[in-house]
Amino acid sequence: MREHNVRCTLNVNATMRDTLVRVDATLLEVLRENLDLTGTKRGCNHGVCGACNVLLDGTLVRSCLMLAVDVGERAIVTVEAVAGARPFSDVQRALIDAGAIQCGFCTPGFVMALTALFAHDPRPTRAAIRAAISGNLCRCSGYVKIVEAAERLAGVAP
Amino acid sequence: MDYVAPETVADACRALDADGSHCLAGGQSLVAMMNLGLATPERLVSLRRITELRGVAPTPDGGLRIGAMTTHAELADLAPDSPAATLLAQAARVVAYPAVRNRGTLGGSIALADPAADYPVALVAIDAVIELVSATGRRNVPAREFFRGMFDTVLTRSEIVAAVRMPRSPEGAGAAYEKLSLVAGDFAILSVAAIAGDDLRVAIGGYAMTPLLVAGLDPAGEVREQAARELARLPAPPGDQRASTGYRRRVAPELVRRAVHAAMRARHA
After folding, report:
1. Yes or no, beta carbons of B2 and A3 under 8 Å apart
2. From residue B24, how far is each of A79, B7, B68 by CA, in Å?
3. d(Cα B250, Cα B229) in Å, to the nearest integer?
4. CB distance from A56 to chain B under 8 Å?
5. What is the complex's ipTM, to 2 decimals?
6. B23: β partners
7. Inter-chain CB proximity B31 and A72 less than 8 Å
């Protein structure tokens, strides 16, 4: 049996989405191209840059390193849903207020990494913040304002 | 390409027994290689539904059996009940990045056998045994024999890494893992795993295509000089985009010294 396209039901942002996917399509590709969720970015496409980070059952994962067919029943949350009904989540608001966004391409990945961090540690240290974003590349900011934004949110810096 | 996600090891082994079949564990290397066009499997056998590949449990001889699908993040949180567990957890904490550690697995990493990976060197120092399962049975292979070369192991086509068995550590022993890399999350330029009990067991990774045991070290003496002498007897280390042969040769003795001293400090009187 050899099937190139399979029907796949994904739980994305609390909605069941039915879509036809290539067997070798990554979750990133399916989010962007099948489901029109283009907030998740394709940077390096091999796990190094972090721009494609999403949450899988609440834990941070690279959507470029998961095949859509291998997701199964697990729940995906993308940057489009982190704020819920609000305009921005606390993490997003902190990044905006700190001026931590320049070109913005890496920002969704940082938002997801910091969202995962704050979900289990509301008052992370600077070291914990740096560790949490160690898998995210930003080529504009030098990371200083991103770390500052997270520190302000943690209440550990003015 | 086709994709199957069997629920038992037996079904997975059967599905693997065909040209172009490949196990999919956490996918953190395989999917990256597929995206880059470096791997083109014809069939992926996902191991994610197989419960017998999961879980960490004590063994009757006082060691630990760790299921192959245990993630790096889970290993990073392993209770430091023994030097072997402490060492493995230290290695797990420096594998790649948080998002990758949440998905990547112990079994996937050792089956890939990257010479610069963190687990091979730790498992050789620990003297762990790799438990392999196939359609025809099981076999246990010492970590030292499991790794054969760059991306090369003793695994046969229909075999799966089922678990890693770590022996009971000597009483009061200490362990340490020292990794030298260009940036956090990268593969190692070199890494050293050390367990100091009544005797000293030290392995170095990134110095050859498989982890090497470094013998002849006396922690009471000048460890760096001893390590330099021992390493000089071995073939020259590789040079690659991360570091030259000369650089590796020069820094290796110091990295050995740091790991040995850290392991000595971690011992209980």
Report:
1. yes
2. 27, 13, 12
3. 12
4. yes
5. 0.94
6. B45
7. no
Report the side by side order of strands in the sheet with B56-58: B56-58, B64-67, B160-166, B129-134, B137-142
Residue of A nearest to B32 (CA): A46
The per-residue pLDDT for B269 is 58
Helix (H) or strand (E) holding B226: helix B223-232
A–B interface: beta-carbon pairs under 8 A: 88
- Looking at domain A5-80, its CATH superfamily turns out to be Beta-grasp domain (3.10.20.30)
pLDDT of residue B167: 94
Closest Cα to residue A153, out of A127, A131, A121? A121
Percent of chain B residues topping a pLDDT of 90: 92
**With contact defined as beta carbons under 8 Å apart, do A126 and A104 qualify?**
no
Q: Is the pLDDT of residue A41 over 50?
A: yes
Tell me how far apart the alpha carbons of residues B65 and B231 are, in angstroms, rounded to a whole number.
32
Chain B residues whose beta carbon lies within 8 Å of the beta carbon of residue A53: 99
Does the pLDDT at position A117 exceed 60? yes
Q: Does A132 touch chain B (CB under 8 A)?
A: yes
Q: How far, in Å, CA of B135 to CA of B71, rounded?
A: 25
**How does pLDDT run across A118-131, given as a tens digit for each residue?**
999 999 999 999 99
The reply to whether residue A26 touches residue B35, judged by beta carbons under 8 angstroms, is yes
Average pLDDT, chain A: 95
A47 touches chain B (CB under 8 A): yes
pTM of the model: 0.95
- Spatial separation of the C-alpha atoms in residues B247 and B114, rounded to whole Å: 20
Tens digit of each residue's pLDDT (9 = 90 or more) over B53-69: 999 999 999 999 999 99
Sheet with B174-180, side-by-side order of all strands:
B174-180, B190-196, B200-205, B212-213
- Work out the minimum CA distance from B45 to partner chain A, whole angstroms: 10
pLDDT at A1: 44
**Residues forming beta bridges with residue B161, ordered by sequence position:** B132
CATH classification of B174-267 is 3.30.390.50, yes or no? yes
Residue with tokens 């790799």: B130
CATH node for A90-154: 1.10.150.120
Contact status, residue A28 vs residue A64, Cβ threshold 8 Å:
yes
